[in-house]
Amino acid sequence: MKKNLIFLMMMSGVMSFSQNCNYGVASDGIANGENISTGGNFEYTSASDFDIEFGKMLTVNNVKFNVLKGTADLSYVNIYFYADNAGKPGGLIRSFENIVPTSQTFKYTFEDNSAYEINVDLPTTFDLPKGKYYLSVQGKPGDSTPASWEINKQETTKLGRFDFSKFDSEDWFGGFAYYDHVFQVSGICSATGETQPDYGTPSSQGNAGNNHETGGSMPGRSLADDIIVPDNTKFTLTNFKISTLQLGNIKNATINIRASVDDAPGEVLYSFENIGPKTENYFGYWPVPGYPLDVVAVDLDFELPQAVELSSGKYFIEVRATPVLFTDYLRWEATSHSGIGSDSYTSYDDGETWESNEGYNFVFDAIGFSKSSLAVSDFNKNNFRFYPNPVKDELTIVSENEVSRISIFNVAGQLVKDVEFKNNKADVSDLNTGIYIGKITLKNGQTQTIKVIKK
Fold it and tell me: Over the Cα atoms of the chain, what is R_g?
């Protein structure tokens, strides 16, 4: 009896941390779609993204998606799951081919087009931890009518990216049509037991737009604007959202956090290369003075791969968009209204020199957490900082009290490098890519540990 009771308690614990859950986009009932036909003369493929949140593991067991088709059932479907790679479908995680759907249910008819829900119980389950993933589907038509994956209205806001498509063996192509596919990925969500660090109270700051009046051109240049962390405050930056005006796409961008030198962008403190937006949302077409076409207003939210802790002071956040073919117009929205700190800046040489955009600020939200830092340690009173992080070759540490050396340990606690400082710099070029702990010793004997990311 006691053994059975313990077993029941264990089962209750498992069940309390697991539940049915799903991710996807609901139908707007407009009966519009994108060709996903397979098994014919040409192969049409599309992909739509979804995000598993922190602290959860999704065990996928079912996929549903809406298809516009003829009266005959689809003969079979192909289902693929891809990892994210710099803002587009990357490595294949799992594939299910030539699967006969569990059910194909009529949903509605609109303007002579009929939508059906294709329900597929997957033959095997698999796990997806936190991250962005792409679902790709194909359907073999049962008659002469192509199979088209239903899409929703451009105005529908969802948490995700605009969708991708490809033709035969061509590369993925996306972001130029501002819609999302209708689908649902379902399974069992289990708690991983992970907990977020205590970063403090949710906080944000930014510059509000002024009816999309203008913007700074992004292709081939770097743009930056400033944020200010108040005195006695630590701000942990986790997301950076920008407003854009575009006829094209931002596949991904490099985001740098720079120091402020004479109220202009200075040295790079943190760098995140080629990260795709976590979400894109459409806000209509807008006229632009001097441009012959209306352009699209799109907000992009970049989730930083690593939370960045910023002490009191002024910083510049730089965005450098990766060029995308067929992008005719791409600008970071700007406003003539007053904003945070000084004006925005543009660099035409990858951040070596900067020009002020006098009278204009870029439209953004710097999102994260704030916490009081009144109880600072004696070490922090040395105005200590280090950069860049991630670092490639040389780590710079600046402190009012001279730095003596840095001892670098791997995550297993083993000493891998012991470096004396020369001109506030340490050579770390021989370290392998990864995460390390650095123990810094000042000439006055004080020590401090930092996390160093070697790229």
Answer: 26
Q: Is the dihedral of CA 277, 279, 283, 284 positive or negative?
A: positive
**d(Cα 47, Cα 215) in Å, to the nearest integer?**
30
Is the Cβ–Cβ distance between 402 and 411 less than 8 Å? Answer: no
The C-alpha atoms of residue 19 and residue 15 are separated, in whole angstroms, by 7
For residue 366, list its beta bridge partners.
205, 240
Identity of residue 405: R
Which has the closest alpha carbon to 317: 340, 285, 290, 337? 340
**Residues present in the chain in total:** 455
139 SS3 class = strand
Low-confidence spans in the chain with pLDDT less than 50: 1-16, 375-376, 378, 381
In the block, residue with structure tokens 């840095």:
406
Residue with tokens 């916490």: 371
Q: What share of the chain is helix, strand, coil (3-state, %, to 5)?
A: 5, 60, 40
- Asked if the bond preceding 219 is cis, omega within 30° of 0, the reply is no
SS3 at position 4: helix
- Residues 189-219 have pLDDT tens digits of 999 998 888 999 999 999 999 999 999 999 9
Which pLDDT does position 444 carry in this prediction?
67
Within 8 A by CB and 6+ apart from 200, the residues are 234, 236, 369, 370, 371, 372
| DSSP-derived secondary structure for 193-232 | --------EEEEEEE--SSS-EEEE-TTSEEEEEEEEPTT
Measure the CA–CA gap between 238 and 248, rounded to whole angstroms. 26
H-helix segments, 253-385: none
Q: Which residues contact 63 (CB under 8 A, 6 or more apart)?
A: 79, 120, 122, 135, 137, 183, 184, 185, 186
How far is residue 171's CA from residue 205's CA, in Å, rounded to a whole number?
A: 38
pLDDT at 16: 44
Q: CA-CA distance, 439 to 449, in Å (whole number)?
A: 4
pTM: 0.80
How far apart CA 334 and CA 176 sit, in angstroms, is 22
Q: Give the pLDDT score at 4.
A: 47
Output the pLDDT for position 17. Answer: 60
Q: Is 213 exposed, middle or buried (0-12, 13-18, 19+ CB in 10 A)?
A: middle
Q: Which of 438, 363, 358, 365 is CA-nearest to residue 397?
A: 438
Q: What angle do CA 83, 102, 118 make, to 5 degrees?
A: 60
Q: Containing H/E element for 272?
A: strand 264-275
